[in-house]
Each structure stands twice: as structure tokens, then as C-alpha cells.
Amino acid sequence: MNLTLSRRGAYAARAAICLARAYGTGRPKKLREISAEMDIPRTFVAQILGDLVHAGIAVSSFGRAGGHRLARPPDQVSMAEVIEAAEGQLAFERCALGDGPCRWQAVCPLHETMTMAAASLREVLGSATLAMLADRDAAIESGTYPVPADAHPHAAAVAIADSVHVELPAAAVQARLRAGSSWLTRHAEASDEDVLRVRVGPGGYGWLGKTVAVHLGELAQADGGVVIPLVWEATGPLGLFPRFEGKLRLTGLDQERCELSLSGHYRPPPGKAGHILDDALLTRVARAALRSLLRRVARVLEEEQPSSSMPAKTAGHRRQVKRHPVP
User: Mean pLDDT over all residues of the chain?
Assistant: First the structure.
């Protein structure tokens, strides 16, 4: 028996959990952040947040520092509220036994049982707060949550990584990265406040190239360098192009060079076809897309730096590319 939520209900639950995890920071979440972190298509995320705002679960604000946040503390919002904000009232809308014989015209024998089942389900969902689910999600992310025996695992994520050497000091590249997303805009087919659309793939604009929506997170210091969370997902019909979640990392090599690396995971399409295609094609597509994007970003970072910061290069010098294939 299928007791899963509709797509709209699932997206509402994901968005609410995202807002709950961010509640303690006091900072509103941007639509692009919610979309990227919770794998909600950009075409739906505004509608879903609208449902939560209309239900009094979330509030929105405009401007550069605007976004969405919970209207109440997470321990005061139940999952029943969240689901009903998207799905409507948790109740059976039709007779569980169908039309049936004429004597069931007014009511069927299963009506009271199903009514009690719906009430019990709402009671359980009503006792589950967003605070509980946010804590559970954090434990899952850290790997400390015990997986139940009856869990429904998703397709295994595939790890990929690549890196490129940039012929500039790490401090110069870091300053460029801190200046915003202009270092990526050079590659964008289109851009707005929330997202950049970039062509990636082993063939660039040719075979197997795909325009993806790239979401950039906040730059942060980490392990002697800087890290920027990065997510891309296919625009238009999703098809079989893999969604990628990873981190762009900058580390210094010496006084004149640094390394720019991109590592993360993508998830193959569900079902048998996805596994067959993944073994034959998608891993190579994803790795080639990483390699292509890294090289282009490194070239832009070098070209747009002031000439005084560029180290002298000997004739025939080429950028060194260091690859890290993941089996």
C-alpha cells in the first residue's frame, strides 16, 4: 500500500526541515539555498514556500538580506501542519471500498475504521515537530543516525573529484572568489539574483553538453583554504543528466600557485535503466563536466587578475591538471 506523500507534500516537508535547521542562525534562507540544499526544483520552490507562508508556518522578507524563515520555533510546528499546508486536510476524500453494492449508498462497513486510521495518522504527525525532524536530519547527515531495518534507501551516490592548478597566489584567487559570483558569470548563458545557468558536459556546447542551474553557497574558511558549496541540476526536462552536490576548494601550493578542486557526489537516475546508464556513461559525463568547468574557471581567474599579480611564464608553459579519479 502506498502511503507516501505527493510531490508537493514532500517538497513542503523538505523546505520546512531546511528552515528548521536554519532557525537558530537567525538568517533567512534564500529560495536558491532551499532549492539546492533540499533538491527541490526551482520551478516549485517559490510555490512551496508560498504554501508555508499562507499557512502561517513561514514568513518572508524582501531585499538583499531577505528570504524565508519559520514564523515560530521549530518545536512549535508539527509535521501535520506542514503536510496539510501542501496536501490539504488529512482525511479520506472517497470511500475506501469504492461504489460497492446499493446498500452501501450512504456508508460502507470500512468507513469508521478508515476514519480512525486517518485520525491516528494525524495524531502521530501532530506529535512530530520540526525540531525533531531537523535533529534527525542532522544526525543522518553526520552518519550517527541508526538506519531502521525497514528503511527505503535511495540509489547510491557516486563520488567524483577533480582539480586544476591556477598560476596565481592563493591570496589573489581567494580575493576574487570573495568578490561574488562574477568569476562564474563569464561562463553563464543567463543569470539572475539566485542562479547561474552554465553549459557543462564533456562536449561543452556539443554532444552531451547540458545547461545546468548552478547554485553557490557561502564561502567559508576550511583546512588552510576556502570552500564554496556548489550544486548543479539540469534545467528544463531533467532527463538523465546527473544532479551534482559538492564543494569547490582553494588551497595554496606555493607563493605563486594554488590548487582549485571540486569534489562531491551525484546520484544516478532511479531504476534499472539508471544503473545500466551509470555504469556505461553517466560517471564519465559527470567527471568530464567537472573537468571542463574547473579548467574554464581557472582560466577566467587567471585572465581577470591584474597583470601585476601574474607570475612570469616561460614559453610553452601549460596549466597543470591534477585528476583524482574515484573508482
Answer: 78
Encode pLDDT of 285-296 as tens digits.
777 777 877 888
Give the architecture (CATH level 2) of 158-323.
2-Layer Sandwich (3.30)
In this predicted structure, which of 153-162, 217-226, 258-267 has the lowest mean pLDDT?
153-162
Name the residue among 301, 71, 281, 274 with its Cα closest to residue 184.
301
Residue 81 or 223, more confident: 81
Of the given ranges (37-41, 93-97, 188-192, 306-310), which has the lowest mean pLDDT?
Answer: 306-310
pTM over 0.85: no
List the beta bridge partners of residue 68. Answer: 29, 60
Q: Which grid cell sits at 211?
A: 545547461
Three cell numbers, residue 80: 501535520
Spans of all domains in the chain: 7-142, 158-323
The C-alpha cell at 11 is: 517538497
Pull the grid cell for residue 116.
Answer: 480512525
Residue 66 has, within 13 A of its CA and on its CB side, a CA count of 8
Cell numbers that stand for 10 in this block? 514532500
User: What class, spelled out in words, does domain 7-142 have in CATH?
Assistant: mainly alpha
Strands, DSSP E only, in the chain?
A: 58-61, 67-70, 158-166, 188-191, 196-200, 210-216, 220-222, 225-234, 243-252, 258-267, 321-323
Look at strands 321-323 and 243-252 and give their pairing.
Answer: unpaired
Cβ neighbors of 168 (< 8 A, separation 6 or more) are: 256, 257, 258, 301, 302, 305, 309, 310, 311
* Length of the chain measured in residues: 327
Residues 201 and 208: their CA atoms lie apart, in Å, by: 6
Could you tell me the CA-to-CA distances from 68 to 23, 33, 44, 129, 303 in Å, in that order?
Answer: 10, 10, 15, 19, 38
